[in-house]
Automatic annotation (TrEMBL):
The keyword Signal applies. InterPro entries: Beta-glucanase-like, ConA-like_dom_sf, Glycosyl_Hydrlase_16. This is Family 16 glycosylhydrolase. Keywords: Signal. Belongs to the glycosyl hydrolase 16 family. The keyword Signal applies. Gene3D superfamilies: 2.60.120.200. It comes from the Bacteria. Residues 1-21 form the signal peptide. Pfam families: Glyco_hydro_16 (PF00722). Residues 33-271 form the GH16 domain.
Length: 275
């Protein structure tokens, strides 16, 4: 009984920590949420990358934020295509006492306002200092402090707490300084660290945002809750390392990969009715 109660107490403490960290506001348990047939019917596929070539397609992507970032160095050398499995790999690795990782963004010709954005990926092992993410950004983010016009950072999926049972979602606006505003949500599941693929998706409409994992609706925000971006935004796939010492302690010389099977973008059919 003591062990069982202790486990419950530890879980409650973790929930409290997650709810009050980094602007996160709540917890969602994946398997208890409503499941949907996706993508929604009112969307058409307009762009995708199945990563079935022999190298990154630079007509679709660019290498983003090369150079030092947090406790690592972003480099195109960390980005590769697994030609056997048809996947993208963003590798995190130690070389000459430095940690290297990578980040890519979709090219400006692929920028989109509203839509359904989905990637299928696996994150293993989820651990402290290993920080993969799938997100949207605008080129005008924070310029005028009008988030509807400037756009927002929309984190469809990221993991940075280091707990293998939690993934996070967030929206940020008004830049990264004193005017920054954020809301967030965490999703809990026993399956996130099982070396299996999951789908992560966002439905973005003028009426708000809906976040999905494996077709479960894990978080919903309406335009009455937060500003809704009306800006063109682009996709980012990234890894970051927040603590070099922790990374070396956990992984040593082992390469740790964020593996992406595909990215697909659907255009909302109602877009033409807005202008």
């Amino acid at each position: 009984m003591f062990n069982k109660l202790s486990s419950v107490c530890v879980f409650a403490i973790l929930i409290s920590f997650l709810c009050n960290s980094c602007g996160k506001k709540g917890i969602s348990q994946l398997e208890k949420k409503e499941k949907f047939s996706l993508p929604p019917e009112d969307f058409d596929l307009v762009w995708s990358d199945e990563f079935d070539g022999n190298k990154l397609d630079l007509t679709k992507w660019f290498y983003r934020a090369n150079g030092p970032r947090r406790d690592a160095i972003n480099t195109p050398d960390a980005i590769s295509i697994d030609t056997v499995n048809g996947t993208l790999k963003i590798s995190n690795y130690l070389k000459d006492d430095k940690i290297y990782t990578g980040m890519i963004g979709s090219v400006i010709q692929r920028d989109q306002r509203y839509g359904y954005f989905e990637c299928r990926a696996k994150i293993y092992p989820i651990n402290k200092s290993f920080w993969p993410a799938f997100w949207l950004q605008s080129h005008s983010y924070g310029k005028t402090m009008d988030p509807v016009k400037d756009g927002m950072e929309i984190d469809i999926m990221e993991t940075f707490f280091g707990d293998p049972k939690f993934l996070s979602h967030a929206i940020h606006w008004n830049g990264y300084a004193e005017n920054k505003q954020s809301v967030g949500q965490n999703t809990y599941s026993e399956t996130f660290n099982d070396d299996i693929y999951h789908t992560f998706a966002l439905e973005w409409l003028p009426t708000g945002y809906r976040f999905f994992i494996d077709n479960y609706l894990v978080w919903e925000l309406k335009s009455t809750d937060v500003p809704v971006s009306d800006a063109l935004q682009y996709i980012i796939l990234s890894c970051e390392v927040g603590d070099k010492a922790e990374f070396v302690k956990l992984f040593g010389n082992k390469r740790v990969d964020f593996v992406v099977d595909y990215v697909r973008v659907y255009r909302w059919k109602g877009t033409d009715r807005l202008k």
